[in-house]
Specification:
The structure holds two protein chains of two kinds. By secondary structure, chain A is of the alpha+beta class. Chain A folds into three domains: 208 residues, Jelly Rolls (Sandwich); 154 residues, no CATH class; 40 residues. Chain A contains seven helices and 27 strands. Chain A has a 17-stranded mixed sheet that branches. Chain A has a two-stranded antiparallel ribbon with strand order 18-19. In chain A, strands 20-21 form a two-stranded antiparallel sheet. In chain A, a hairpin with a 3-residue loop joins strand 10 and strand 11. Chain B is α+β, with helices and mostly antiparallel strands. Helices cover 36% and strands 37% of the residues of chain B. Chain B starts with a helix and ends with a strand. The model of chain B has no long low-confidence stretch (mean pLDDT 88). Classes of the chains: A alpha+beta, B alpha+beta. At the A-B interface, helix 4, helix 5, helix 6 and helix 7 of A face helix 1, helix 2, helix 3, helix 5 and helix 7 of B.
Chain lengths: 459, 524
C-alpha cells in the first residue's frame, strides 16, 4: 500500500507540469466522500481530479482528501472541512481560505519562483486569522461556531496575525491580494509560530496569542500521523489516575530536573557519546526558536497573551486548553502537564479527549450523556463518580496564575462578593424618606404655630 | 582459538554493543527533545545490551510517567529495581507512578526510599506526609510535616503548604476530640495564620484564607458571621461626606393661587453632611452601632429673610442595637435604637444659627423574612421633641412598616408606610396625625455602575382641630433619581422631585414645588 501510494505521488509529480494547465491541484488521495464546487456547480471529488483556482472543497464526516499542488506542496483536508483555493498564481504565493474544519499542509522548501525568500510562500486565511507560511509543515483548525482558529507548526515557521473586520470585509469583497495579506502577517501584532508551537485567534481576542509549546504528546502524535483525524480513536476511556502532584504544591519544585537521568545515561553510553547526543539535542532545540516561559505571560502594554505551555489543542473547537494551576511540570520539554481530570490525548487521533466532559465551542466543559453510566466507564473506576469538570476556558487560555479566577490580587467575583449591598440601599432610602417626612413635619408645625399665634394675636 | 576467530569475536561484540548502545542513545535523544512515544517505540522494538537493561527499564518507566501511563510505568520501575539500577531518582519517579495509580502504601514506601537515597528529600517527605493524610494517619502526617518545617529553609512554597497541611492534620485530630471548637481556635487557625505569614501574596495564602473562613463559619468562630448566619462587613467603621446642591423653586411653600399675597421664593440650597459609625458585635449575637451625623443647610438667597431663616445645623447621634436571631427558620433581628438630635436654626433671621430644638427618639422593632421575597421591618417609635419655645414641644408616637424585595437580581422594590401621631401638648391646635405611603423602584446597574430609581410618596395629614378649615391635607411627591457610582467610594446623585400639597384652606396651604438636586458622596 505504501509503495502504491509512493508510486502515485511520483507519477503525479512527474505529470504535474504536463497537466498544470488543467488546474492548480490534483486529488491524490480520497477517503470517504468529498465535493468540489467549481463555478457554482457541485461535483463529487474523485481521485486524480484536477482542481482549478477558485474551487471550494468540502469533505464529509469520516472523509479526507490529499491535494498535491503544482508547486509540489501538499495539503490534507480533514473530515467535515471546507476550504477554498482562493488564488494560486504561478509566481506569487497562493491563498487558501479555510471556512471550517482542518487542513494540514506541507509546503515545499524549494519554491524557486518566489524571489524574496523572507516572504510568505502560501497564505491561509480564516474568518479570524491570516497566516503566511514561511516553512513546511503545519496544521490549521477553524471552528465556524466560535470563529476560533488554531495553528500548530510541526516544521519551519508560519507567521500569524489576527484578521480584523476591515481586512475581512476586503477579503470577502475579493480585494485582498497577496501584498495585503503579507502586510497583515508582517504587522506589529503578528507572531511567528515555529516548530512545536501553537498560536490561536478568536473574536474575543484583539491579537493572536504569543506562540507557546503544546503538549509534547499531542505534538508528536499529530506530527507523525498526517491523517490522524481519520483514525477511529482508542476505544473506551482510559484508566483514571490521580494527578501526580499533591494539591497546592508548586509543579516546578516537585519536578525531577532530569540530571540524574543524564548521569545514568552517561554511565551507560559513555561521556563521549553523551556529548554527541547533547550537541544534537541543542541543534534540534534551536529549530524551535525562542519562546516565553512555560508559565506564559500577559504584556500589559501591548495586550499580548502567552498561555501556559503544555496545553492541549481541541481540534474540533479550535480551542487551546491550558494546564490549570496545580499542574505538574516537565523540565525536559519545558511545559506544564495538565492533570488527568483535564483530559488526555488520544494516541490514535492526536485529538484532545475527556472521558466525562465535552468541551463546547464556548469553552465550557459539560457532562457527556454517558458520563457516569455503566457503559462509558472502564473497569478500573467502575462505580466511581466522575471527577469534577475542568474550569471553563478563558478566551485565550490565560497563563497559569494570571487568570481572573486564579490571581490572588484580583477581586473575588463569586456570588458572596456582590458589590451591591441591598440592605444598605433599603436602609438609606428609608432613612431619607423618614428624614424628609420629619423635616416636613417640623416645618408644618412651625408654620401652623406661627399662623395660629398670629391669628390669636390679631383676635 | 585462532587469532582470526578471536578478531571476529571481538569485532562482533564491539559491533553489537555499538548497535545496542545506539538504540539506547537514540531513545534518550528522542526523550530529550520531548518525542516520548518515539523513544518508547525504540526501546520496545530494538535490542538493548544486557548491561543496559536496568537503564532501559528505568528510561521506559520515566517515559511512561511522562505519557501519564502510570500503570505501565510501574512494572518497568520494578524491573529497574530488580536489575539494580543505581539512578538516584528511581524511587521518586516510581513513587510518583504508584501515587498517581492510587497504590498509596507502596508509594509511601518508594518515597521513603527516595528520601534515603537523598533525592528531592523535601518533596519526598511531603509525598509521605500527604499520603499519610490520605490514609487518615494524621499523627504520622503531623510528624512528617513538622519535620519538613524544621528542615526546609529555602523553598517557601513548600514551607507554606507544609504548615497549612500540618494545620489540616491538627484539624483532623481535633475533630475526634471533645473540645473541637476550642482546639480549632487555639491550634488549627493560628497554625494556618502562621502559614499565611510565610508568603502573604501567594496563591496558597489566598487558599488558606478561604479555608480559615470556612472553618470559622463551620465552628462558629467567624467574627463576621453572626449566630443566625448574618454576614457583617469586614470593615466595622464607616465615614461619609456628602455635598448636595439643591434648587427649590418654592422654599416658603407659598400657595400657587393668583390671589395669594405671599410670593414664591426660590433659592439654591447647599447641604453638607458628615456621618460616621462603628459596629460592635458582642458574642456574635448582638450588634451595637454608635453613629453620628452632622448636616448643615445654607440657602444662597441672602436677601429674603423668609428664605435664609431656614439655614440650619443639625447634629444627630445615637446608638442602634440589634439582637440577631432566627424566626420562621430565617435570619431576623430585633431592633432597639436610641437617637438624639440637636437643631439650630437662623430662627430670628439674623444670619446666625441659634438653638431651635432638641429631641430624643426610642425605637423598637423587628426585621424579619416571612418569605424569600424580601425583608419586612416593623417599628414603633416614641419621640420627645422640645423646641426653643414651649408651643413647639410635642411627643410623637409612630408606627412603621417597610418591605423590600428584589426581582430579576437587580430590580429592587421598597414599600414603606409610617403613621405619626403628633401631640403638641402645649398647643394642641397644632397636633396632627400623618400617614405616609411610599414606594420606590430601583433599577440597579441599568448601565454599569448606574442606578435609576423612581419614588412616589403620598402623605395624608389629619389636621385634627383644624380639620374644619384645612380638612385632610394630601401631599403627593413623585421623584426620580439617577445614581452613578464613580468607584467603590465615590458616587453622585442627580434627582428631581415634584411636590403637590392639597388643603381645604387653599389660600394658605395649597402649593406645588419643584426641587432639583445634585450631590457627590464619598464614603469609606
Amino acid at each position: 500500500m505504501g509503495k502504491f501510494t509512493l508510486s502515485i505521488i511520483l507519477f503525479s509529480l512527474l505529470s504535474l507540469q504536463v497537466f498544470a494547465n488543467k488546474g492548480v491541484a490534483k486529488v491524490i488521495i480520497l477517503k470517504g466522500k468529498a465535493e468540489a464546487e467549481i463555478d457554482g456547480k457541485k461535483t463529487p471529488l474523485k481521485k486524480g481530479m484536477w482542481l482549478p483556482e477558485g474551487v471550494t472543497v468540502e469533505t464529509q464526516p469520516k472523509s479526507f482528501t490529499k491535494l498535491l499542488f503544482v508547486d509540489k506542496s501538499s495539503m490534507n483536508v480533514g473530515p467535515k472541512s471546507q476550504m477554498k483555493i482562493s488564488a494560486f498564481p504561478k509566481k506569487e504565493a497562493g491563498i487558501i481560505t479555510l471556512m471550517k474544519g482542518q487542513i494540514r499542509s506541507k509546503v515545499t522548501k524549494n519554491y524557486m519562483d518566489i524571489k524574496d525568500k523572507s516572504k510568505s510562500k502560501l497564505f491561509i486565511k480564516t474568518k479570524t486569522a491570516a497566516m503566511g507560511v514561511r516553512g513546511t509543515d503545519f496544521q490549521v483548525n477553524f471552528n465556524p461556531i466560535n470563529n476560533a482558529t488554531s495553528l500548530v507548526t510541526f516544521e519551519g515557521a508560519v507567521a500569524m496575525a489576527r484578521f480584523d473586520n476591515l481586512a475581512r470585509s476586503a477579503a470577502s469583497a475579493g480585494r485582498f491580494n497577496q501584498r495585503a495579506l503579507e502586510r497583515v502577517v508582517s504587522s506589529e501584532s503578528a507572531v511567528m509560530v515555529r516548530k512545536g508551537q501553537y498560536s490561536g485567534a478568536s473574536p474575543k481576542m484583539e491579537r493572536v496569542t504569543v506562540p507557546v509549546k503544546i503538549s509534547p504528546i499531542q505534538l508528536e502524535t499529530l506530527k507523525n500521523n498526517e491523517a490522524a483525524s481519520l483514525n477511529k480513536g482508542s476505544s473506551g476511556p482510559k484508566k483514571t489516575f490521580r494527578s501526580v502532584l499533591p494539591p497546592g504544591v508548586d509543579g516546578k519544585s516537585f519536578a525531577n530536573d532530569g540530571k540524574e537521568m543524564e548521569k545514568e545515561m552517561a554511565s551507560n553510553l559513555g561521556k563521549g557519546a553523551m556529548k554527541e547526543i547533547k550537541k544534537e539535542i541543542v541543534k534540534e532545540m534551536a529549530l524551535a526558536g525562542p519562546s516565553v516561559g512555560a508559565e506564559g505571560m500577559i504584556d500589559q502594554n501591548t495586550g499580548a497573551i502567552a498561555p501556559t505551555a503544555g496545553g492541549f489543542v481541541d481540534l474540533g473547537t479550535a480551542q487551546y486548553i491550558p494546564p490549570p494551576p496545580g499542574s505538574a511540570y516537565d523540565p525536559v520539554a519545558d511545559v506544564y502537564i495538565p492533570p488527568p481530570n483535564v483530559g488526555r490525548i488520544d494516541f490514535e487521533t492526536g485529538d484532545f479527549v475527556n472521558d466525562h466532559y465535552e468541551l463546547t465551542p464556548e469553552g465550557e466543559f459539560i457532562a457527556k450523556d454517558n458520563a457516569g453510566g455503566p457503559e462509558g466507564r472502564g473497569p478500573a473506576d467502575a462505580g466511581a463518580p466522575p471527577p469534577p469538570p475542568p474550569p471553563p476556558l478563558e478566551p485565550s487560555g490565560l497563563p497559569l496564575g494570571l487568570g481572573p479566577n486564579n490571581n490572588p490580587d484580583s477581586p473575588n467575583l463569586g456570588p458572596d462578593a456582590s458589590p451591591i449591598c441591598i440592605p444598605c440601599i433599603v436602609e438609606r432610602k428609608i432613612k431619607e424618606a423618614k428624614r424628609k417626612l420629619e423635616e416636613e413635619q417640623n416645618k408644618r408645625l412651625e408654620d401652623t404655630n406661627t399662623r395660629v399665634n398670629f391669628e390669636i394675636t390679631i383676635d | 582459538m585462532k587469532l582470526r576467530d578471536l578478531f571476529i569475536l571481538i569485532l562482533f561484540t564491539l559491533t553489537t554493543t555499538s548497535i545496542y548502545a545506539d538504540a539506547l542513545s537514540d531513545a534518550f535523544k528522542n526523550y530529550s527533545i520531548g518525542e516520548y512515544r518515539t523513544a518508547l517505540k525504540i526501546l520496545e522494538t530494538k535490542r538493548i545490551a544486557k548491561k543496559d537493561r536496568a537503564a532501559k527499564e528505568y528510561l521506559k518507566g520515566i517515559i511512561n510517567n511522562k505519557l501519564q501511563q502510570f500503570d505501565k510505568a510501574i512494572p518497568h520501575f520494578q524491573r529497574a529495581i530488580k536489575y539494580k539500577s543505581k539512578a538516584k531518582d528511581l524511587f521518586y519517579e516510581f513513587g510518583q507512578a504508584l501515587y498517581a495509580a492510587n497504590s498509596l502504601d507502596d508509594a509511601r514506601i518508594a518515597f521513603r526510599k527516595s528520601y534515603r537515597r537523598g533525592f528531592k528529600k523535601a518533596s519526598s517527605l511531603y509525598y509521605m506526609a500527604h499520603i499519610s493524610q490520605l490514609l487518615e494517619e494524621h499523627k504520622q502526617a503531623k510528624d512528617i510535616f513538622s519535620r519538613i518545617i524544621k528542615e526546609e529553609k529555602e523553598d517557601f512554597n513548600l514551607l507554606q503548604i507544609s504548615r497549612f497541611q500540618l494545620a489540616e492534620s491538627l484539624l483532623a485530630m481535633a475533630t475526634s476530640k471533645k473540645e473541637t471548637e476550642r482546639l480549632v481556635a487555639d491550634y488549627v487557625i493560628p497554625q494556618m495564620n502562621k502559614a499565611i505569614e510565610v508568603d502573604k501574596k501567594s496563591r496558597t495564602a489566598k487558599d488558606i484564607k478561604s479555608r480559615i473562613k470556612e472553618l470559622q463559619k463551620q465552628y462558629g468562630l467567624d467574627p463576621n458571621i453572626m449566630k443566625n448566619g448574618k454576614n457583617l462587613p469586614e470593615q466595622r467603621w464607616s465615614v461619609g461626606f456628602t455635598q448636595e446642591i439643591e434648587f427649590d423653586n418654592n422654599i416658603t411653600q407659598s400657595t400657587d393661587l393668583p390671589t395669594s399675597q405671599a410670593s414664591q421664593k426660590d433659592s439654591y440650597i447647599y447641604n453638607t453632611t458628615v456621618n460616621g459609625s462603628y459596629l460592635f458585635n458582642p458574642n456574635n449575637k448582638f450588634t451595637v452601632k454608635p453613629n453620628f451625623r452632622i448636616a448643615n443647610k445654607k440657602h444662597s438667597d441672602r436677601n429674603s429673610s423668609t428664605v435664609f431663616k431656614n439655614d440650619s445645623l443639625t447634629i444627630d447621634y445615637g446608638v442602634g442595637n440589634t439582637f440577631e436571631h432566627t424566626l420562621f427558620n430565617r435570619q431576623a433581628n430585633a431592633i432597639l435604637d436610641l437617637d438624639f438630635s440637636y437643631i439650630s436654626r437662623d430662627r430670628n433671621s439674623i444670619k446666625e444659627k441659634e438653638y431651635y430644638a432638641r429631641s430624643w427618639t426610642l425605637t423598637l422593632g423587628e426585621n424579619l423574612k416571612f418569605t424569600d421575597l424580601g425583608n419586612t421591618t416593623f417599628k414603633i417609635q416614641y419621640k420627645d421633641y422640645k423646641g426653643y419655645i414651649d408651643s413647639l414641644n410635642n411627643k410623637t408616637g409612630s408606627f412603621s412598616i417597610s418591605h423590600s424585595f428584589i426581582t430579576n437580581g437587580t430590580r429592587l422594590w421598597i414599600l414603606f408606610f409610617q403613621s405619626d401621631f403628633i401631640d403638641n401638648y402645649n398647643d394642641r391646635i397644632s397636633s396632627t396625625n400623618s400617614y405616609l405611603f411610599r414606594g420606590d423602584y430601583l433599577w440597579i446597574n441599568i448601565l454599569k455602575d448606574h442606578t435609576l430609581s423612581f419614588g412616589l410618596a403620598i402623605t395624608l395629614l389629619d389636621t385634627k382641630r383644624n380639620y374644619a378649615t384645612r380638612g385632610m391635607e394630601k401631599t403627593i411627591t413623585p421623584s426620580v433619581t439617577w445614581t452613578r457610582n464613580l468607584n467603590k467610594y465615590v458616587s453622585t446623585n442627580l434627582s428631581y422631585e415634584y411636590t403637590k400639597n392639597d388643603s381645604k384652606d387653599e389660600g394658605s396651604y395649597k402649593y406645588t414645588k419643584h426641587v432639583t438636586s445634585f450631590d457627590l458622596s464619598v464614603s469609606f
